[in-house]
Every structure is written in C-alpha cells, then in structure tokens.
Amino acid sequence: MKTGYIYDESYFWHDTGSGTLFLPSGGYLEKDVFSEDPATKRRVNNLMERCGIMKKLKRIDPRPATLEEIKLFHTTNYIEKVKLLSDTTGGDAGDHAIVGRGSYEIALLSTGGAITAVDAVMQSEVENAYALTRPPGHHAEADMGIGFCIFNNVAIAAKYAREKYGLDRIMILDWDVHHGNGTEKAFYHDPNVLFISIHEDLNFPDNSGYAEDVGEDSGRGFNVNIPLPPGTGNAGYLEVFKSIIAPLADDYKPQLIIVSAGQDPSIYDPLGRMRVTAEGFGKMTELMMEIAEKHCNKKIVFCHEGGYSNAYVPFCTLRIIETLSGIKTDVVDPFVAGANGYPDYLYEHQKNVINKVIEIQSEYWSSLKVLV
Fold first, then answer.
1. Under CATH, which number does the domain 3-329+343-361 receive?
2. Burial degree of 246 (CB within 10 A; 0-12, 13-18, 19+)
3. Spatial CA neighbour of 166 closest among 192, 131, 195
4. Which of 15, 22, 30, 199 is the residue whose CA sits 20 to 30 A from 292?
C-alpha cells in the first residue's frame, strides 16, 4: 500500500454553526448549506468506501499536534484565544474563522493530521499520503484565523519537517482557488521553503496574491503567486504546471513536496469561478508525482483545504487519490457532461498572465521560459 490516508471522525464534528454560503444565517439569510460544512469531506469518505478504494489504502490515524508544534507558527495569544472560544461560547477567531465548542482539540488533530502525513512519508511508511484535514489551514496567519482556517496545517507541517528531518528545500504548492495568504506569510522571508500559490485573481482574500509579491530579504524569489483569471479550466492550469511549476522544481530540487489541495477550482464550486474538472485534478496530481519522483524520491503529501460543492468535491478528490495510489476504480465522473459546453483552451488572456509571472520570476529562476 503506497498511499497513506489520514482522517478522523472528529474532523466532521468541527461545528461552524448555521449559515448560507459564507455568511451566518439570520435576517433575510435563510439557513442553507454553509460553505465550510463537514458534508463535502464526509462524502469523500463515503464515496471511497462505496467504490472499494478505501480498503486498498493504508489507513493512518492522526495524532494531535502539540502546543509546541502549533507555536512553530502561531502566537501564544492567538492560540489562547482559540482555546477560550472553544471552551466557552464559540465565536470568530478573526475573519470568518468560526470556532465551535470543542473546535480547539479538533484543530489540533487537523494540524496533527498534516504532521502525521509528513512522518509517514519521510519515514517511508508510505510513498505518498493524503490527509483529509478539517478545519482547513492555509488562510490562517500567525495571530488570527481567516476564511474558515484556524491553525495553518501545512505551514506548521513544513516547519516541523525542517526541524525534525533537517530539510532545507521544501516545496509547497497551493492550488486552492483562494490565495494561500497565511502560508505565504509564514515563509515570505525564508529561502528554505518555495511557496507557490495558483489561485483565482483577487477572489479571497481580495488584497493578496499578486504576482509581484515575490518574497523579501533572503526569501526573495521563493514566493510565487500565479493569479489566474476567472474561467480558467484544465488547459490553463496544466500549462501552469508545465511552464512554471516543473521548471521551478528543476531549479529548486525539493526534498519534500506538500500540496495544499483545495478542490474549489472545480467547475461546480460555489465560492470559485474556475472550470477544473475531476480529470483535471487527476492530471495535476500526476504532474506533481512526476516532479516528486524526479527530485525527492516520490515524497509528496497532500492536505485537504477548501472545496465547497457537496456533489463534486468527492469525485475530484477521488481522482487525486486514484492517481496517488495507482488504483483505478469503476467510478465515472457523473458531472463531466455539464462541462462539455465550455471549450477548454489556453486563452490569450490566460497565457498573458502566465507570461507575466514567468517574466517576474525569471530574475530568480533560470529554467523559466516565456510562452510564445
């Protein structure tokens, strides 16, 4: 069993309250499906059990992150705030970062899931791993939660990997439709982590993720933002992997790759305006596995971030896990016909954005070549 799969029932018990899309219900907002709802991730498990692939993965139980591990990124005051909210009334730990009763312990377990995945891969228990972490983490900053994220699972896992295994070249790829602002800030001055965020331009947060933000001091050139225009589909995303991510990896030669895997660039996501299909997520995973095989002995970890279509997230995630494990199920994407009316090309305005990123980053990376 080459693929580890990490989750805990507690992840589904993190209570974000009732709401509609990303707002709390009340007034004229009738209760509906709140975006950061356990259903999307619970249904991933349900589909994997139903099609039989779950039995063929190596199930690994997560452990809670320790307080010292959380402090690798977060401030003591912020951690204490989350714990107080969790132990009392619940509430917002920042900007749309809802803490429910008991969420502190669940958030520790979510971060611990990312750490457990790193250990499993680094200790060769498995070749690769997928952690179905919840609550997500990539928006969380050192002193506040943002956008459903409480503790920054991936940032802490990367800092942990550096500390425990002595790594000095970790690549983090964030393909969530929203900019990974928290992870960016964690490593903005740090050349030991190459952070790449592919996201919808100015979706959320609306003041970050610019291509010109390349890092500072010794971290200059190690922060790569790729703000794609709304409507980008498989062709645009895959071009980014071929023209930017693979050449960057050739220059950087990572020792470990961590992917912040948000399935909200999908064509059916209510909080994104992109057009990636389940097949597209599978191909993106395949390209990342090729990079991992070439540079870091296949060591790659996926941590679940966003994805808010209860119907489609399970099928997108299944394609990722099928690709990681090499196990093909009989599951056919039942929604693919809905994407057939949208021609999937690399459009000129998408190409222009990719070239802009290449031009900016070419100052630091010799392998990048402008598309003609």
1. 3.40.800.20
2. middle
3. 192
4. 199
What single string gives the DSSP state of each residue in 131-186? E--SS--TT-BTTBEETTBSS-HHHHHHHHHHHHH--S-EEEEE-SSS--HHHHHH
What average pLDDT does this structure show over 169-175? 99
The pTM (predicted TM-score) of the whole model is 0.97
Q: What is the pLDDT of residues 19-39, one digit of tens each?
A: 888 888 899 999 887 889 999
Check: CB of residue 218 under 8 Å from CB of residue 344. Answer: no
Give the pairing type, strands 98-99 and 91-92: antiparallel
SS3 251: helix
pLDDT at 1 over 80: no
State residue 172's pLDDT score: 99
Beta strand 58-60 with 3-6 is parallel
Q: Is the pLDDT of residue 341 over 90?
A: no
Note whether 254 and 194 are within 8 A (CB): yes
pLDDT for 177: 98
What pLDDT does 162 receive?
98
pLDDT for 38 equals: 95
Residue-wise pLDDT for 122-164, tens only, equals: 999 999 999 999 999 999 999 999 999 999 999 999 999 999 9
- The angle at the Cα of 183, spanning 48 to 369, to the nearest 5 degrees, equals 90
Give the other-Cβ count within 10 Å of 162's Cβ.
19
CA-closest candidate to residue 49, choices 314, 371, 257: 314
Sign of CA dihedral 340, 174, 293, 333: negative
d(CA 7, CA 110): 8
pLDDT tens digits, 297-308: 999 999 999 999
In DSSP terms, which residues pair with 256 in a beta bridge? Answer: 170
The answer to whether the beta carbons of residues 271 and 308 sit under 8 Å apart is: yes
Between CA 5 and CA 131 the distance in angstroms is 6
**Which residues are known catalytic residues?**
139
Residue ranges with strand state E in 262-366: 300-304
Which residues, listed in sequence order, are joined to residue 257 by a DSSP beta bridge?
171, 300
